[in-house]
Amino acid sequence: MAFAAEVAAVAGRLTTPIWRDKIQRSLSKNKHLANSRYVQLATVRQDGRPANRTVVFRGFLADDDDSLTFVTDSRSRKVQELAVNPAAEVAWYFPQTREQYRIAGNLVVIDAAHVDNALLEARARVWSAMSESGRQQFGWPHPGRPRAAEDPEAWNNPAPGPQDPPLDTFCLVVLRVDEVEQLLLRSNERFRYSKAIKEDGSLAWAEESINP
Amino acid sequence: MAFAAEVAAVAGRLTTPIWRDKIQRSLSKNKHLANSRYVQLATVRQDGRPANRTVVFRGFLADDDDSLTFVTDSRSRKVQELAVNPAAEVAWYFPQTREQYRIAGNLVVIDAAHVDNALLEARARVWSAMSESGRQQFGWPHPGRPRAAEDPEAWNNPAPGPQDPPLDTFCLVVLRVDEVEQLLLRSNERFRYSKAIKEDGSLAWAEESINP
């Protein structure tokens, strides 16, 4: 349970990482834009080629855990791909402030059978916070398969309510962050944040100013 | 010269691929948004992990060549990475029309020493069309290296003019497209376009409607 150990190591900390504070400020300054929470998530397919798609940021995992969360359908191709290679990099561009974050780490997929109760609770919490149309999509026919002349009802099944248990196809996706880069197009500044484990076992983030 | 042969195969065609027409329409409908030409380009690093960054779409290569073009600095890490693994996937989200394109293929980097004259001409054309600040960046200190307390002049060298030859660091990046997916969030439609070589050697694009 390396993940639980890591969570414990940062519990009770007094400060959040600079990069998380920066992202929170960017979100705040760009919140009038409908797509300010849309990010592009890159992973690697089983044939060694990259995959890239837009996903919605669903918040940080907890006050004391800086993992980013997303959701996916258990039937989507990326779930199988992540079982082989969990590495990911998010590109997140904020149009209002003209900033880009690149966020690298490993993804963990939390389905109904996951063993960690805290992560199962996070899955249920994100499910409850989804829009009705967002919840409804997890009852749709198999994503990516040829579209059949099916009963139109297949697309119109009523969505489960926010307090209903998540559908089995609903997965929480957790990005455990190892490195962050911020590029500011207005000021031509660029910062790199790298994770390091300190001698006492706690996490620290090193900040470096690099050439844009 | 597989590339030249491929270009020849499509020369003189009467129609452009449906997906290219669709992207042109999306660009037109979203052109009031300053970042409608910003896309996210995913590649694979030498350690097998994905990389993802925002780049500016610089147009299709030619009327009869549907490759997408971008630019990069020869000193950027991705140039070395692409020499090992040229595979790429672009994610392109259009906020106004709520559409996503995923565009997969292989990247070719065109530097000053490239052997193909047509591609060198394309490199010079894109250089001339760059903004002054865009051209200036190719004279900046080495991207990604620690920022030094250098002479501030290093950042203020005047940009070469649009008619000056491109700086040696200036590379054209050409994405030779193999597959395109379009996802329409408004109508919940999703289309896949796959490249195929017909019996007479010409290119064809197969369209398939798939589940969103």
UniProtKB/TrEMBL annotation, chains A, B:
- Extract the GO molecular function terms from the UniProt entry: FMN binding
> Residue ranges of the Pyridoxamine 5'-phosphate oxidase Alr4036 family FMN-binding domain?
18-110
The record's PANTHER family line, in alphabetical order, gives: AGL049CP, PYRIDOXAMINE 5'-PHOSPHATE OXIDASE ALR4036 FAMILY FMN-BINDING DOMAIN-CONTAINING PROTEIN
Any Pfam family from its record, for instance, is Pyridox_oxase_2
User: Gene3D superfamilies given for it?
Assistant: Electron Transport, Fmn-binding Protein, Chain A (2.30.110.10)
At the highest ranks, the source species' classification is: Eukaryota, Viridiplantae, Chlorophyta, core chlorophytes, Chlorophyceae
Q: Where does this protein come from, organism-wise?
A: Volvox africanus
Chain positions covered by the region annotation Disordered: 135-163
Domain of life per record: Eukaryota
Q: What is this protein called?
A: Pyridoxamine 5'-phosphate oxidase Alr4036 family FMN-binding domain-containing protein
Q: Record's InterPro entries? A: Pyridox_Oxase_Alr4036_FMN-bd (IPR024624), Split_barrel_FMN-bd (IPR012349)
